[in-house]
Amino acid sequence: xxxxxxxxxxxxxxxxxxxxxxxxxxxxxxxxxxxxxxxxxxxxxxxxxxxxxxxxxxxxxxxxxxxxxxxxxxxxxxxxxxxxxxxxxxxxxxxxxxxxxxxxxxxxxxxxxxxxxxxxxxxxxx
Length: 126
Prior knowledge:
Elements: H1 3-12, H2 20-34, H3 37-41, H4 43-61, H5 72-91, H6 97-119
Helix pairs in contact: 1-2, 4-6, 5-6
C-alpha cells in the first residue's frame, strides 16, 4: 500500500460497506490524474513521497498515546546522531553503502519535518 493510500485512508476515516480500498483507489486515481506527468517525473516528487512515508513510519513506531514529545533541542540531537550514522554508513567498507547512507538521510529529513510539525516552521522571506 502506498503512502498516498495510507493518507487517503486516514482522511476517509470511515469504512464503507465496500471497504476503504475502493474509495482510496478512486481518490488516488483522481489525485494522480490531477497531478501532471511532468510533476511525477520531477525528482522532488519522489523525495517528498519518501519523506512522507518516513513520517508515516515515525508516527506509527510508538503505541498511541505513548509517542515521546521531543523538544527542538532533542530533535537536533537526533539529527546529529543520524548524521553520524550516515557518515559511518558512507565511510564503511560494506557493499551497498550508498543505499544505506540514503536510507539514513531519509530518516534525517523525517526528523527535521517532524520537528517543524511539532514546533512550527519559519518560511523563507527572501
